[in-house]
Amino acid sequence: MALLKNPGPLLKSKFKGIIDVIPLKWRSKLGLTSLVREQPVDVDPTALGDTTADGIRVVSSVQQERTDERKKTDVFITDPVGSTMVEYFRTKDGQVGTRTHTVRNEGDTLPSLTALIIEADQEAWGDGLIEQVVSTIPNLLGLYDYKVERPDRVPPDFGALLATTEESHTVAGQAALPTLSTGELMREERQIDDQTKRVTVRYRDLAGLPVTIVNSDTNAEKQVVVITRIWELASTTPALPTDVRDVSFEKLGDGTAIETRRTAPSLFAHQVYMVEIPDRVPTDFGSLLRTGESEQVIDGTAALPTLGVGELMRRQEQITEFTIKLTIRARDISTLPKTIVNKDTSRVKQVVTITRIWELDSTTPAVPTATQDVSFEKLGDGTAIETRKVETVFPGPVYGISIENLIPPKFRAHIVTATSEITSTGTADPTPTLATGEFSHEEQQVDAFNIRTKSVKISAISPPITFTDTETTEEYGGGILDVIYTLHTSGLLTIDTGLRVVSSEITDLGNGYEIKLTKRLHDSAWTVLP
Description:
Blueprint: E1 14-16, H1 24-30, E2 32-39, E3 51-52, E4 55-66, E5 69-77, E6 84-90, E7 96-105, E8 117-124, E9 129-136, E10 145-149, H2 156-161, E11 165-172, E12 184-191, E13 196-203, E14 211-218, E15 224-233, E16 245-251, E17 256-263, E18 272-276, H3 283-288, E19 292-299, E20 311-318, E21 323-330, E22 338-345, E23 351-360, E24 372-378, E25 383-390, E26 398-402, H4 409-412, E27 417-425, E28 438-445, E29 450-458, E30 465-473, E31 479-489, E32 501-508, E33 513-521
């Protein structure tokens, strides 16, 4: 059995901190101080992080080499907190970036992040220190992208004949707003980094123009139309239209155009024939039997039509080579007659019953009577309007009374005779009477509610009224007579008497007045004959 060398108690060593956790670059920059001394057996490693004249303690170890002694080793680093190292590098966008390494105390936070800090990191060394690495750029690079594109308006069938091509390449320079060239659909410039840009172009090679496609179609008139479509440069002069050819020229905006020629075999006549008569049916009857309009497309050739019974309009329009559109506006008069009864007031204020009948013009109208008027008006469309007005006979009576005007003609020149006619509401009096001063009074029933009163009478006077004429007489030896006329209310006059009175008489006028005529000697006495 082999014997153990140096038997005895186990040797015990203690360590705090490892120098290897400090990066070599920092050891090189800051330097290390190592203190080694013999210590009693019962010594322990010193706590890390304290600051001494030799620096900050980063490693402390006690190694037992013999049972009765230990070797204590302390490693110090010059206070590194705040120490920095700077590196420069090229960023992905082509700028020169700055990477700053800084020693910080464990627990310190990262700096406030900004748009210019592209990376920030910390690495703990385990001895209370950390390395902080912050990468920054001098400015923000815009990396602008510019793109100009127009819609591809080339019809798909032409596009299939001349396909688009897209190519990209990277060149030195700064991206800017591009301009499209002839045939180009899209041009894009993208800033890759601070020194280069990517240029992309999508285009068609227009050297192959013009390109022609010929198709056929049927137009609205059912003619076979040849459609020639030409994709050509926009500077091309298009064909001229004719009576059988339509031409359109549409510029696409990319330096090209589509010219379309639609050629028909012949000019479509498009005949239209119409026969129409005025609608003379009164509107109230028209609402009872309204007009209807129908349209239908039938085979045939348009021609001048003929109106049927009840038709107001018939129209034929050639819409295609083979069909016509037939339009008819008509009324179904099979439901005639139609009757409308209305009321009206006649000239004499009587109620008139008006019966209007819309009927065939072959109908025999009613016969007029003493109380019925009949009119029969043909409308020219096979119908007629028969109008029957029924009114009772209005008698229109006239009642009057009059007396002879006995006023002497000479006296009439001094008394005005007035005539008046007045219309008022009422019924004519069959036994009228004369009022004071009237010579005649007449009442006429002008309508069912009103009368017309006519009166001839003396105008307003204040009796008695007297005037005197003069004449000569041969009676009683002759002399000059006063002829005295007096108008007074009946019964108030008396006969004049005396030696000078030749005659005196009173005449009753019959209208409340009387006249006295007296002839009297003008002188105070008659002449005595010798």
